[in-house]
């Protein structure tokens, strides 16, 4: 399973009243860098999350091989929920604040009558948990198909002015309710072709 992120410094909007800004502000091309990526959680335990950052420092892949949940005969209640926190250490130009304005998860679920699948994703910049933004997809059985969790433009959390680095924590989880069932159910964070894409588009404010 593959989890991929792309960063684009291509969009801008008006700022809140307490932040100095210029509409249409875009920082220099290729000015955003990923300094490091780490993953931890029951869906991405040590040895089961494989991180790659490309030569430009703007694209990273985290490949998972255990990010799925199951219920049904022979499954324990703990098999019904898994989570993964991916932390991305970002570097950007002085004098700007950074916001992530779009995320997308793709996955697959096979749910029997009476089961509900949930994919939840939230992000927050380290040190400012008050601005966590959460998105959730609920799947009601019977369901057997791919699914998408898309967070639309306009829900934003900006980094604080005055810095040039920030750690973005992306907290995701997948679960099936109820946690015990006589029927088999499975839900993954992946796509039909084996790729999960979490895409970040960046929005900028002049501080």
Structure description:
- The protein contains no helices and 15 strands.
- The protein has 207 residues and is mainly beta.
- The protein has one domain (2-206).
- The strands form three sheets. Strands 1, 3, 4, 7, 14 and 15 form a six-stranded mixed sheet that branches. A five-stranded antiparallel sheet has the order 2-6-12-9-10, with no helix packed on it. The protein has a four-stranded antiparallel sheet with strand order 5-13-8-11, with no helix packed on it.
- The relative contact order is 0.30.
- Mean pLDDT is 75; it is low at 1-23 and 191-200.
Q: Count the DSSP helices.
A: 0
Compressed to H and E, one letter per element, the order equals: EEEEEEEEEEEEEEE
Helix content: under 10%
Structural class: mainly beta
Number of domains: 1
Overall pLDDT score: 75
Which value, in Å, is the CA radius of gyration?
A: 18 Å
Tell me the total number of β-strands.
15
Largest sheet: 6 strands, mixed
Q: What percent of residues are in strands? A: over 45%
Distance between the termini: 39 Å
Shape assignment: elongated
Uncertain spans: 1-23, 191-200
Signal peptide: 1-21
Organism: Podospora didyma
InterPro entries: DUF4360
Protein name: Secreted protein
Quick description:
This protein is mainly β.
Summarize the helices and strands and which ones pair or pack.
Blueprint lengths: L1 E11 L20 E8 L8 E5 L5 E6 L3 E4 L9 E11 L4 E5 L2 E9 L4 E10 L7 E8 L2 E9 L13 E13 L7 E4 L6 E3 L2 E7 L1
Parallel strand pairs: 1-14, 1-15
Antiparallel strand pairs: 1-4, 2-6, 3-4, 5-13, 6-12, 7-15, 8-11, 8-13, 9-10, 9-12
Protein name: Secreted protein
Keywords: Signal
Pfam family, one: DUF4360
